[in-house]
Design brief:
The chain has about 270 residues and is an alpha/beta fold. The chain has helices spanning about 35-40, 70-80, 95-105, 125-140, 145-150, 155-160, 165-175, 180-195, 220-230, 245-250, 250-265; strands at about 5, 10-15, 20-25, 45-50, 85-90, 110-115, 205-210, 235-240.
């Protein structure tokens, strides 16, 4: 897969399809592979780019503190390298926070913005969950030991109870010891410190906010805060899901995303 330099960071990415650009930004604990189902579904109609955020996958490590605004600069730099003037942006969790900074820094480059299980400011519970996950790695620096303490926070109780094989697969995926713990710690802090709530009123970009009813990380409180501030936003609730509703209610999530992209196509 190609890697491009965006200034501070080298970014690893994949690109599929032709047409209007759609850029997919993953969350804190993931990499570009989190988007593979969406890439497969969208590549026949769009030029789809998914990449590893700094500190993830095969992109540069985040060996020093970096904020979500720095990640936004890296994403805009990736667009520069790929010759993309403007794109529709979809960000999940931390990726939605990155997208907010993109819309604030370069509104003419963000044709639309969709945020899945994201936040403009974490509520106290969400911030505590992230701090706890950081602390677990301080106590026991092992992803394999960390994973069982994290996975149940990502899905709704009913999904966890009725999908043991899938939960085991997710646990195994996030148990991989090749992820850099220092990068994760810096990016987790970036999530806790991200606060664009009082600037959301500046964002005129058409925005879709998607939230899971049972999400303890990016809670309904955090979703409502965004909807109260964004001047041009729509909301979609995933009633049966938590933080991973893109997987828990996959068909509804994909239909929602496809409809949003079509509605805001150039």
């Amino acid at each position: 897969m190609p890697i491009v330099n965006t200034g501070r960071f080298d970014i690893n990415y994949i690109e599929e399809g032709d047409g209007e650009p759609v850029i997919l930004i993953h969350g804190l604990a993931g990499d570009h592979t989190a988007w593979l189902p969406q890439v497969a579904a969208l590549k026949d109609r769009y030029r789809v780019i998914a990449f590893d955020n700094p500190g993830s996958g095969d992109s540069s490590l985040v060996s020093e503190p970096a904020g979500t605004a720095d990640l936004a600069d890296a994403t805009l730099g990736l667009m520069d390298q790929l010759g993309i003037d403007a794109a529709q942006i979809i960000g999940r969790s931390m990726g939605g926070a990155v997208a907010q900074h993109m819309a604030l820094k370069a509104p003419d480059r963000v044709r639309s913005m969709a945020m899945a299980a994201s936040f403009a400011r974490l509520d106290p519970l969400g911030a505590q969950v992230i701090r706890n996950l950081q602390q677990l790695l301080e106590w026991r620096p092992s992803w394999a030991e960390w994973a069982p303490h994290a996975v149940y926070l990502f899905v709704a109780p009913s999904f966890f109870n009725t999908n043991p094989e899938l939960i085991a697969k997710i646990t195994a995926l996030v148990s991989g010891e090749d992820r850099d713990m220092v990068s994760y710690d810096h990016l987790a802090t970036a999530c806790i410190e991200h606060d664009a709530l009082d600037r959301l009123s500046e964002i005129q970009t058409p925005t879709l906010v998607m939230g899971g009813r049972y999400d303890p990380i990016c809670s309904m409180t955090a979703q409502n805060w965004m909807m109260d501030k964004l001047p041009n936003a729509e909301f979609m609730l995933f009633e049966e899901s938590s933080h991973f509703f893109l997987m828990e209610e996959a068909a509804k999530a994909m239909a929602t995303i496809e409809g949003w992209l079509a509605k805001n196509a150039a």
